[in-house]
Amino acid sequence: MKQRKNNRLNAAVAGDRNNYVTAIAVFVGLLVLHIALGAVYRFLEEFTRSTMENKFKEKLFRGLLTKSYVSVVRVHSGEWINRPTFDTVVTVDG
Fold this sequence. Notes:
Helix content is 91%, strand content 0%.
């Protein structure tokens, strides 16, 4: 590795632009790849988080709709609004 680095430096000092430009192109390519992989990671993370959150909300509402009216009315409506929003986010975040 050290020998390659010295060869690139020597080539740059000697005026061999081809070797130097190739090294810069490889570095820029790796940098672009790193940025692209980071974007894909963030997309997949948010996609799985939102999918899980929606599945939990769906399960909660399905249970709410199949319960008896009396048991649903016993709990304040604000509680039914708060639970899907807060509890599912906490569950998904771990």
